[in-house]
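Q:
Just now I want nothing more than another pair of eyes on a protein record. Here is the record:
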Amino acid sequence: MSLIKWEPFEEFDRVFRDMSTLPSLKMSNMNFDLACDVYEDGDNLVAEMNLPGLDADSIDVEIEENHLRVSGKREEIQEKKEKNHYTKEIKRGSFERLVPLPNPVKKDAVEAEYSEGVLKVTMPKREASEDKRIKVKVKK
């Protein structure tokens, strides 16, 4: 009898490959496309996110510790009863994305602009505070 080598991670790959072929389970259809590019530009960190079809007033941008939080709402459109949709793929409703930042930023100097469907957040970097590490004396 010959032995067949078991590849456990191959099983995971097969499951995900099979799931991606089912139209009702495609990962891209499960939520908004909230992909984010984060890069350095001089002394700034810059985050860019495509958010087409939104009003700037419906986007919230916050800095929490070392994370950028972008949230908002894409409004539902009142639909006419006589419409017969063949597909309906545009996502509506609330969304939120938490992006880890590679460096600490100056929270009070962050600027955001939204133009032609692209949100651009510029965050000036700051040096990591040395007082984060505190020596605690242990009593005997």
Observations:
- Residues 22-30 have pLDDT under 50 and may be disordered.
- The chain is about 10% helix and 35% strand.
- The CA atoms of residues 5 and 26 lie 31 Å apart.
